[in-house]
Amino acid sequence: MTARNISRFWEWGRKIICVGRNYADHAKELKNAIPKEPVLFLKPPTAYVREGSPILVPLYSSNLHHEVELGVVIGKGGTAISQSAAMEHVAGYALCLDMTARDIQDECKSKGLPWTMAKAFNTSCPVSEFIPKERIPDPGKVNLWLKVNDQLRQSGCTSQMIFSVPYLISYISDFITLEEGDLILTGTPKGVSAVQEHDELQAGIEDIVTMSFRVDRQEH
Ligand SMILES: CC(=O)CC(=O)C(=O)O
Ligand SMILES: [Mg+2]
To answer: Which of 98, 166, 176, 204 is within CB 3.0–4.6 Å of 210 for a Cys-Cys bond?
Structure first.
């Protein structure tokens, strides 16, 4: 068997664990309360999409939103990881989008139902190339941005996160065992907005990484 390469973690079929409402300005723009504990949900590995393939608007949604987020790639698994040891479990990072069918999420919220159809559909997790850990010495101090058709929509710094990367790793690993190749999406800053078929999305982490995606409508 050939050795797997963490720089292609999206091919491993591992978990994508997402943190919601981790930026107060985004929680406020959607009129959500500021959380006292991390809000978590999951995406399946089939949600990954890479540059060169389009983001698909699900047939059942007419309000697909972008959410730009810092992704943390787990390099060493563990359960009940302490905050002080958390960074030893990080292999690197990725720039990610948490594509969200906002109309479906609102409906699910109003009915008290889970967000799966709003957050976990195919292509709901566009992901950049792998960023080795050394390139982001402090994940609590990097700027993320996103443009739609060259218009800046999101710009925020991870210093605005309510729960830090070490806190999230420790908190999650208390009840979900983290495995090598898992990805944690750490939440989005304010500025989320709708995208349409044929839009061009561009996102970046400072001058460390950029990525571009075209939006298409799912055909069947
Ligand atoms: C309300 C949300 O969709 C939460 C979320 O995903 C976030 O990043 O915040
Ligand atoms: Mg999100």
So the answer is: 204
48 domain residue, yes or no: yes
Kindly report whether the global pTM for this prediction surpasses the value 0.90: yes
Q: Residue 117: which of 72, 68, 63 has the closest Cα?
A: 63
The secondary structure element, H or E, covering residue 143 is strand 143-148
**Ligand 1: does its nearest atom lie under 6 Å from the Cβ of 30?**
yes
| 117 C-alpha to ligand 2 centroid (Å) | 14
CA–CA separation, 18 vs 98, rounded Å? 8
Cβ(43) – ligand 1 distance below 6 Å: no
Q: What range does the domain containing 150 cover?
A: 6-217
pLDDT score, position 220:
77
pLDDT of the residue at 219? 86
- Residue 1, domain member (yes or no): no
| Ligand 1 site, residue 173, Cβ cutoff 6 A | no
Question: Domain holding 97: CATH number?
Answer: 3.90.850.10
